Queue: 4 jobs
Job 1
Amino acid sequence: MSIRHGLLALLEHGPRYGSQLRTEFESRTGATWPLNVGQVYTTLGRLERDGMVVQDGEDDAGHALYAITDAGRGELRSWFGRPVDRASPPRDELAIKLAMAVGAPGVDIRAVIQAQRHATLRAMQDYTRLKAQALVAVEGADGEKGRDDVAWLLVLEQLIFQTEAEARWLDHSESRLARLSAAAARRAGNATPAATPGPADSRGPAATDVTGAPAARTTTDHGTARTPSSARSARR
Amino acid sequence: MPEAMPGSMPHESHEAHQSQPSQQPVLQLEQLTRVHGSGATEVHALRGVDLSVFPGELVAVMGPSGSGKSTLLTIAGGLDSPTSGRVVVEGTDITTVGRKELAALRRRSIGYVFQDYNLIPALTAAENVALPRELDGVSARKARVTAVAALEEMGLGQLADRFPDEMSGGQQQRVAIARALVGDRRLVLADEPTGALDSETGESVLALLRARCDAGAAGILVTHEPRFAAWADRVVFLRDGSVVDETLRSQADSLLSGQAAAQ
């Protein structure tokens, strides 16, 4: 997250002091990414070192004010014009968790998916409730308050899209695993009666382990291919 | 993403639309089972589902296709009978009433919203909304007055004299919601109501459904779209005919008030 550029963008509206920047940053983004004053001053220090801001006197209450420089404005323009760097996707704990759950002993990957889907939907419900309120706020407000409300709405909607993508990916992963385990069961079922030697025999159980779905094992035992849903029913 | 707890966000409002658990549920499903076919081709569409929906509550039902979502909805609405279990609508077990009484109860208590709107093409919006009242014996003039009032309350007054083919999909669906909840009816069963709509329009339909529930209706929303399910108070996950998970009520309100108290 670019605190640097966020602060430069706020300073473009005129000189400000540290805790004021923090408050404004948070009212733009709904405190989704809370800042502490320490971070703000550290960042201001670096920006000052790099010539992007200068100290610009004090306000009546004695707060040290910072102002953006021409170099800072240039950097800000170039930031807005530049797409966000995708070269190294941020680490995603959920993706790592599912990747590790594949074939992990004693882990029911479907339970992992369902637990996450529950939490993801809950978060979406919360964001959606807040969004409904934000929509009302946006209709009623203008001026600076209006700008903050619009900014907050955009951030909320981004969170909704993100959680939605996560929920879709979870659904997709679940059905992908079900299909893979059904296919593995079919292969195993075909292989056993035909007494196919070596490779096919080992492929069946191995594929079952990959998806970690007990359904595949059940069907392997019976030597019959089943659809994922009937295989699941059979387990109950 | 850093922890983005909605509770820590400003712009909060304490407006709550809590259902009151002390109230009677509008709809109560008890140990509902539905078996299609028999013997080798037997399919268990529902296996002992319990679900209550209270006034003011919107419940989303999600699940893969074949999980029993639509069966649940048709049984809840009296369009199909369960193999066993009870379906209590406004205090009446509709599995035990006669055909005629069931038809009357359906007309008076239950509204449907379908993916393809199902408005009658030869009738205007107001006439479509008035129809269930008229079928219930209310005079045409009185039914029309109620219908126009219902449309106006939902901000759809300008559509009253339009025919379905003169309205967009989103407008038709909003009229369908008005029809579902006209008169004393306060149970709306919506089966993929946004399925045929683009996402923006779908959202406005959901917002209307949400608003009607906030105003006291009880709703079940069957959807496979997480974004639309998120408008609900509770999300129920069905799989192979059983409820496998359920999100509790969104705690945004209590989170926010808890936060406000802490600040």
Note: Helices of chain B lie at 69-76, 99-109, 125-135, 140-153, 169-180, 199-214, 226-229, 252-262.
Job 2
Amino acid sequence: MLDKNGIAKRIAREVKDGMYVNLGIGIPTLVANFIPEGINVELQSENGILGMGPFPYEGEEDADLINAGKQTVTLLPSASIFDSAMSFGMIRAQKVALTILGAMEVSENGDIANWKIPGKMVKGMGGAMDLVASAKNIIVAMQQVNKAGESKLLPKCSLPLTGVKCIKKIVTELGVYDILPEGGFKLIERAPGISIEQIKNATAGKLIIEGEIPEMVI
Amino acid sequence: MINKVVKNADEAIKDLKDNMTLMLGGFGLCGIPENCINAMVKKGVKGLTCISNNAGVDDFGLGLLLQTKQIKKMISSYVGENAEFERQMLSGELEVDLIPQGTLATRCLAAGYGMPVIYTPAGVGTEIANGKEVRKFKFNGEEKEYLMEHAFESDFAIVKAWKGDTAGNLIYRSTARNFNPMMAMAGKITIAEVEQLVPAGELNPDHIHTPGIYVHRIFQGEKYEKRIEQRTVRKK
């Protein structure tokens, strides 16, 4: 079973040279640590950065320079700064090639829920609704089962939706899935040591398995 | 030159009244108008509707106005860092309108550009689309649905910039820019507080982010705490 870093490492292989990439909070943020040498990408942070760099050295934090997770960060030499309207303008206009974000639930037709648990938790959608409504290429990084052991890959989301029919790829602790245009989670790869049986038990929505499913290489 | 300078935050907000609608710049605690928020706490204005991306933390930023129950309604995109906020919202004391961050930014932008509505794909098919006009447009080679959203109207926009001049021209610094430029353009009355106030002529006109026409009052903040919400560092 993959840990958070393992999920991030696997997703990093989807990042291609020359891409502008938006990383959400949580596991997606970790993806930046595993982008292979020789792959040049620019990270977009929706509070107004292109060319976001690593955390600052101790003592060099700047209160005016944070990422969308409110963490202190640095700028790469190629960086630019802009306002929030332009930031979502470039997202809406599909200039950002890849969006990686977390989810509470994903349905077999590509719906995603990640902003609200009615009556319990309401943090807000932040930029997630804008991102999923516009991005062409979205990868979801998530845990496939919750603490109670219930699958979060569902026939239909039970929580309020963030976006409709927008997710095409999911990486979890158990495997990699494509969501097919006609619906269904198509298993592409298994996490190391994970059996088809384990994956079946952890998938409540329609699971499609064709032929031998390779173990992922990370 | 038209002089926009007021003495301090108290003077800048002197005619801010109960039940008004305000825009407040900032992302998290970054680029928030600290001095005006403190002045509003002191003044005790109540029943405020605040348009702001976030709601501060319990003891800083807009969290201060929540503690004193001066805010009736928040219009925000993300409010996850504030326990008192969550308590007031779940108990129904505080009205909350959560909207997508890009929609929030663009509704401010539309106001500043003199346009009554925008169409955005954000939120189509979700509960935030309830009761809103949905239209299909063919654009960028594909046909999809868009939600109609209205430009914001606010009595005051309160923003924070790095440098400003006596004519009200503003320059922001780094990611403290965020929502400030759009909100500055969108207020019926816009108040700008700055870290450094300089005489007109000292800022390079090519570097100005917000032209003074949008700014009605400007002052240099007495002090800035500039609190960091998540201090993340690496070792040398």
Note: Chain B has six helices and eleven strands.
Job 3
Amino acid sequence: MEVRVANVRKEFDRFPALHDVSLDIKSGELIALLGPSGSGKTTLLRLIAGLERPTKGAIFFGDEDASQKSIQERNVGFVFQHYALFRHMTVADNIGFGLKVRHGPSRPPAQEIRRRASELLDLVQLSGLEKRYPAQLSGGQRQRVALARAMAIEPKVLLLDEPFGALDAQVRRELRRWLRDIHDATGHTTVFVTHDQEEALELADRVVVMSQGRIEQVGTADEIYDTPNSPFVYGFIGESSSLPVKVENGDIWLADRPIGLSAPHAASGEAMLYFRPHDVELLDGCSGCIAGTVAASRRVADTRRVELEIGGERQRVEIELPVDHPAAQKSRVAFRPRRWKLFPAA
Amino acid sequence: MADPEIKSYEPHHESQSAAVTESRPVRAVLMAVAFAFLGVFLVLPLIVVFNEALAKGVGAYTEALASPDTRSAIRLTLLVAAISVPLNIVFGISAAWAIAKFEFKGKAFLTTLIDLPFSVSPVISGLVYVLLFGAQGLLGAWLKAHGIVILFAVPGIVLATVFVTFPFVARELIPLMQEQGNGDEEAALSLGANGWQTFWYVTLPNVKWGLLYGVLLCNARAMGEFGAVSVVSGHIRGLTNTMPLHVEILYNEYNAVGAFAVASLLAGLALVTLVLKTLLEMRYGAEIAATRGH
């Protein structure tokens, strides 16, 4: 099922949580809504589900305008952040709930509901736990039951709110791979919310980066990481360093010297230079480079991350050096970003 | 822990560190004071009640209870409780639902208003009904013209009882529902349940122990209420006398055995309520812990 979010605005008590958001989700796609807290990602998910109504704009499921439909009519599978399992029901009853509350001929007989619940438990690898209560399950198991319950109603769209948020790192990684497998096996159009970029980049077909109620960028992991289209995305995804620079006639200047980078199409004036700390070229001599004194250095896995003071103490940037690089304290390091991007000064 | 389901429902036991534990004699004195107080003010009166009731033997006791006026008082009390408790369940659940699950103007006002019967003297609440429904009251003439009798009859007693008991169920449920939030209901709705199914299969089971606890307290009060009922009942023997009113009448007539026999029934009700309440608390302590305060 394709989902189209068209110019949606959402206000809570006149306070806007989403500004004019549009998004096309393809059928069978696995999409991540990624952003810091307060970016509106959960609001967008709840709007798609029908747990909230848009103040303006519409949401289409296929060609159908779903925004006027209630959550029951939309037939979406929603997995809540804290699972919201019914604590007084067994695992099997939780999974069967969505079938049990149906009316008339669409409601399967009790035996069929039980069979479906067991089948789904097999799918989420929890066979044999039918009679358990939610309180008797671990966090990861609850997460799986919540997913099985959401899938039991054969939803058009599967929506997950911070699906791994409450789990520890180990279980998180495991479930992440497992969710990808389930998605590939069932082919549901799936949207999940996360604030964990690693999770989003690894798991999703496309990532929607959000900030302050707006979509900053939509793209594959490669697009988002390699060609961020705003300072926010540059800063939010992966490591980044930035320096205030000046553009003059297509050349980039740092303070009073050119740094050997040219931006022929950039307008002259103040700008911010963004680059990845690991994507720099170390230079020996310095004619046209960025040079600085090492202020601090940390060993991070198999690289050394150093903080450079550029031009006295006014600016600090981080770059990565090979572990065996002889940059001790107070020694000077000269470098030039290999890949970089200019954004207008804020 | 962020997950509401893993939250332990064990009561919190604080380990007693040596630094805050009083010395043995101090502890003994404190306990003696507490027990003496309980004994004089609670246990002794209970013993007296049963002692007086049985003072002239079991025969006199059963005879006192079998008298027509007493039996009609018992019937009336049961009737009043049977009407007012269900009314309060409906009201309590509606109010708690509205307060815990929605945002609306006047919410704080409604919350305060629910507590009103706790803070106002029951006599006043009775008088309010007299002023409203009495012959000289606001609605008196209209009621008379339409042949509706409220005051000095069962409807008045029920109204007064509903008034004094209406905080019980609501007060138990509001904190419980607020703590549980909307998550489970949203989950049920997203799975296709309608409002009624959501209430019946999800909301109600989540609050059932709190509800039962509230109903228990509400019932005890409904059967034991004296002040408000006394004002509106008119004390017509065999017609508008509830058990507490009947106790007073018998006592004023120097019928000690009769008075204490009926009183012993009320005391028995109190004991049963206490036992049930304790059992409930033992089993579902934390679920109702949030609602303690009376």
Note: The mean pLDDT of chain A is 89.
Job 4
Amino acid sequence: MKDLRRNFLKLAGGAGAMAVTVAAGLLKPGSAWAAPWNKTAFESKASADAIKNLGAAELVESKDITITAPDIAENGAIVPVAVTSKIPNTQNISIIAEKNPFPLAASFDISAGGDAYVSTRVKMGQTSDVRAVVKAGGKFYTAVKEVKVTVGGCG
Amino acid sequence: MAEPMKIRATLQGDTADVRILMRHPMETGTRKTASGVVPLHFIQSVIVTHNGKTVLDAQWSQAISRDPFLGLRVKGAKLGDKINVTWTDNKGDKRSDEVAVSAGT
């Protein structure tokens, strides 16, 4: 009986969360359609899977992508990373910290004609490559920069 | 519930330089305290609009640092244009703040 009640509560909780999500979606009519959170890509544990789940089958190395990040980050909890893409029609910039437990850190959709520049701060568990994946005109481009981490910032 | 963001939008030529500082714990779900593991709690989505038109639609993971910073540039901005930022976290909390583009120094 007790177990049944637990299950019921769980179910009810789940349904409630769903309702909130749906309501949140409906509450912003008129604004641009926001893509749902890419759960599969964000929960990928290998950077190759994360890239695949972003929809990129093939990556082309590009010198038109600039990653601005420190060579050595003393504190892995705050690593400033900025990505600039000079590729025309840049639609999306994703930031991947390759050796993090969940490598994909962020994915930015840039509206048409927008400036292809984003800057943020990410956590890094250990020294690894930071990869930027840029989607432009249906193709995917990439660039890498290594960041040495003195003290890890996960956990 | 959520604390206000700090947003600064300054005009440089015809581009607004927007810097946003949000207040959020951004828990990774792996941090342990005396009372156990702190559950996953992070901002999943950030939407930046310029006079109501979306310019940046970001999806984040828990790997973004605590009290997240976001910097971007908005093309074709004018003095007084409205820059609105809305974030939503994995618990459904959200916060929206708006500033007007001010003159750069």
Note: Confidence is low (pLDDT under 50) at residues 16-32 of chain A.
